[in-house]
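User: Show me a protein chain along with its predicted structure.
Assistant: Here is one chain, sequence first, then C-alpha cells.
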Amino acid sequence: MYAGLVTWSWWFMPSAFLFVLPGAMVAAYMRTVCARPLMGAVLFALIVVVVPALLWPAGLTGDFSGLSRRLRPRGHSPECRTFLGRLAGGVETCAVDR
C-alpha cells in the first residue's frame, strides 16, 4: 500500500513526494518490524499531512513577496519609490534608475 502511495506521488505530485517517501518508510517499518500497523498509519498521516501544514506559512512568505513585486509601480526600484514618496509625487525618474 505504501509503495503505491510513493509511486503515485512520484508521478502525479512530485512536490509532495518529499513528505510521502519518509512517511511511507516510517509506516512500513512500524507495520513490518514493530507489528503496529495502526501506529504506522498514524505516523504516515502525521508526516504527510501535519508536517507540511506546519511549513505552509513559510510558503506564504514567498507568495506575498511575489505579490508585492507584481504590485510595485513599473520603472521604479524600491529605493526610487522611497525617494519619490519623500518628494510627495516629485520627479518621474531618480538617480537610482539611471
